[in-house]
Each structure stands twice: as C-alpha cells, then as structure tokens.
Write a structure and sequence with these properties.
Blueprint: E1 2-6, H1 20-28, E2 31-34, H2 41-50, E3 54-56, H3 64-69, E4 73-78, E5 81-86, H4 95-102, E6 108-110, E7 118-121, E8 127-130, E9 143-151, E10 154-163
C-alpha cells in the first residue's frame, strides 16, 4: 500500500494550489493522510476527488466548516499497522515520551503544525512522522511531503520529498 503523508497545506492562504508534482503523488497513492491545516474546504473536496482514499484531521487554522467534516484525531489500521493522525503534538522537547503516553496502542503517529519534517521513534516503538508542508516551508530550505509503503503491517520505504520552489 502506497501512502502520501502531508500537513499544513494552507491553501489558498500560503499557496493558490498544491504543486503539480505533489498532485501527481496524491493521484498515484493508495492512501493520502493529511494532518491538518487545510484552511479551505475546497482543498478537502479536491483532495477527496483526486485521491483513492483520504484520511484527514483538522488543524488550528481550520474553521468551523472543516471541523464539522474532520475529526481532531483519526485512527485507522492499515494491513495490521495501527495509525493515528493529529495536528498538534506540543513542543519538540519531550514529544516522543508525551506521544507514546497519549497513543499507547498505535504503531505510527502522523502529525503536523510545525512545518518541520520529523522522523523519530519513541521508547516502546511508536514512530512519529511529520511531513513538513508542501506549500509553506517557513524556515525550512524546501517545501516537503512524505511517501511510505505499508507491507504486512510494517511501515517501509519512508521518503521525504522536496518540492521545487514556485
């Protein structure tokens, strides 16, 4: 199962649309995971239409319309891999320990908010992934997203993709 992981798209505030190469990745994936800060319902509708399957949550910049359609935390099992998605996880200091305590029954936590790519493992084996942002790189050198594969309950082939500057 091929995954695309994203967050903090901020369309249309930070960009008018998602970059073309990112749309291509979305269309090729079996599952797209969005960890919040969509900003506009039109992007949710477009991603729903262009992806085979979409799992998303709302973020701190998402208003009432998006909050009515999306949960704060999403959970899914992918071929035996237990996944949770949330926008905010708090400060980077102590993140692994805090998230392991909050999500003790999960193998993978996808989160956003910081716009900073993150890939660590908490004590006990919880994998934490933040894909960065495909539209608002903030202090990062590149806009980014992640791809990964799930095979027999195992996350493999995790890859950070850099997007060209507009």
């Amino acid at each position: 199962m091929r995954l695309v992981l994203t967050a903090d798209t901020h369309v249309p505030k930070r960009a008018r649309d998602l970059p073309g190469p990112f749309w291509a990745a979305i269309e090729a994936a079996d599952l797209v995971v969005h960890a919040g800060d969509w900003v506009d319902e039109a992007l949710l509708d477009a991603m729903t239409a262009r992806s085979r399957r979409l799992i998303g949550v709302y973020g701190n910049n998402d208003g009432p319309a998006l909050r009515a359609r999306l949960p704060e935390v999403a959970r899914v099992e992918l071929d035996g891999l237990r996944v949770a998605v949330v926008h905010e996880t708090g400060p980077r200091t102590g993140r692994e320990k805090r998230c392991a305590a909050r999500f003790p029954d999960v193998d993978l936590l996808v989160f956003g908010h910081s716009h900073i790519p993150w890939d660590t493992e908490a004590p006990g084996g919880l994998r934490l992934l933040n894909p960065g942002s495909p539209t608002d790189r903030r202090s990062q050198p590149h806009a980014t997203y992640l791809t990964a594969e799930v095979q027999a309950g195992t996350l493999t082939e995790v890859q950070l993709h850099r997007l060209p500057r507009p």
